[in-house]
Design a protein that fits this description.
The protein is mainly β and about 190 residues long. It contains two helices and 16 strands.
């Protein structure tokens, strides 16, 4: 009898949302496993029948790099038919407290949610801020500037008032050879004295 093909696995995830894992069971009962970080232990997320081949992981912690794989429940098949490993990370959005233009400077104050993975040494990366600045609300290609900020609370940049109409702040975490992004937060810039 021909041997079944290896299980294949794929992940789909919108920024800041739980990851949906889909796999091909190849007619076998499968076990979905997850580990936190490259050195974590594989732990069972879900056992599934041959016809149940998707799962949404709603237990992710912010900033932890998770690895997923699907394996047959039958031990004698596990090493031969286990899936490749896929990675995902939940990155929550920053809260932008204020965006002000004052005396020739743009000042953006924000707070980044706690990155659990960094504290636990599981990401291999740290949070960065991507700050886009546009003169208009639409952020058309070529009509805005992008900056990276390492500061956890404030971004400051000298610029003309006309160019500082709106800001868009995204949290980035580099880990496992990839960059994971939060949803973007957009805010109108207020003029100070």
């Amino acid at each position: 009898a021909p041997k079944p093909e290896k299980i294949s696995i794929s992940l789909s995830q919108k920024a800041g949302k739980a990851v949906k894992i889909t796999w091909t069971s190849r007619g076998m009962k499968t076990r979905l496993e997850r580990r936190a970080g490259s050195k974590g232990k594989w732990r069972k997320l879900k056992d599934s029948s041959a016809d149940k081949t998707s799962f949404t992981d709603k237990s992710m912690k912010n900033g932890v790099l998770y690895y997923y794989r699907a394996i047959p429940q039958e031990k004698s098949y596990q090493s031969e038919y286990r899936s490749a490993v896929e990675k995902a990370m939940l990155v929550k959005k920053a809260s932008v407290r204020s965006a002000t233009w004052r005396k020739g400077k743009l000042i953006v104050k924000y707070q980044v949610p706690k990155i659990y993975g960094r504290a636990a040494g599981k990401t291999g990366g740290k949070a960065l801020l991507e700050v886009k600045v546009s003169g208009s609300k639409k952020f058309r290609k070529g009509k805005y500037k992008t900056y990276r900020a390492a500061s956890k609370k404030t971004f400051t940049k000298k610029m003309k008032k006309a160019k500082a109409g709106y800001v868009e702040v995204t949290v980035l975490v580099k880990a496992g050879g990839r960059t994971f992004r939060s949803p973007a937060v957009r805010k109108k810039v207020k003029s100070g004295r």
